[in-house]
Design a protein that fits this description.
Layout lengths: L1 H35 L3 E10 L8 E2 L6 E10 L5 E6 L10 E9 L15 E2 L4 E10 L16 E2 L3 E7 L2 E7 L6 E2 L4 H8 L1
Parallel strand pairs: 2-11
Antiparallel strand pairs: 1-3, 3-7, 4-6, 4-9, 5-7, 8-11, 9-10
């Protein structure tokens, strides 16, 4: 009788040990996946500028101009994702416009509402509308331009912060389509940044 009770205790201890090891392995796999995942995509682009431009194919540089981009951000991954906001930090000195703010929207109207951003959770294969506000890059290096207009360049990707089951990561999400930033010169750059 005593040995039978001891065997049952040993079996329970082994079973609990196996469950513990499996739990640790599953947690490690989720963490690694969460850090490496890039599940988001953008579908459709609707653009406006702060000076009244609607759906421009190209955007010029001008003092105080902002560019508003509405799009649908889709979770193409197998796990739910929470969009926590934009990744902070300056843009590259070559980017004319940089992402400044993110707001929720319908994905079609490029109009910021100046409301607080509430991080949305996206189930797999669902999407949500956002509006990204791009502003002039205060660190734009005008000295790299000359009197000949530069080549047109796309707006930089949206640097999003996201999380899955508490594992934080980032993803730079390129915009699917226009607008591009019209070629600029050193003079137009310096005039816009005054």
């Amino acid at each position: 009788m005593t040995s039978l009770a001891g065997e049952r205790g040993g079996i329970v201890a082994k079973f609990l040990g196996i469950l513990l090891v499996l739990g640790i392995c599953a947690t490690a796999a989720l963490y690694i996946y969460g850090k490496r995942q890039q599940p988001l995509s953008a579908n459709g682009v609707h653009v406006a500028t702060s000076d009244g431009g609607r759906q421009p194919a190209t955007v010029g540089i001008a003092p105080g101009r902002s560019v508003y981009v509405a799009t649908i951000v889709q979770n193409d991954g197998p796990l739910p994702v929470t969009i926590d906001g934009l990744m902070p930090g300056p843009g590259a000195p070559t980017d004319v416009y940089v992402p400044f703010a993110i707001e929720l929207g319908d994905g079609k109207r490029p109009q910021p509402t100046n409301g607080a951003f509430v991080p949305p959770s996206l189930d797999p294969h669902t999407g949500i509308g956002v509006v990204i506000t791009y502003t002039l890059n205060p660190d734009l290096a005008c000295a790299r331009f000359d009197d000949t207009p530069s080549d047109p360049a796309p707006l930089p990707p949206m640097p999003l912060r996201l999380s899955t089951y508490g594992v934080d990561t980032t993803q730079s999400l390129p915009l699917p389509g226009p607008p591009t930033v019209r070629g600029i010169t050193r003079t137009s750059c310096e005039r816009a940044l005054r």
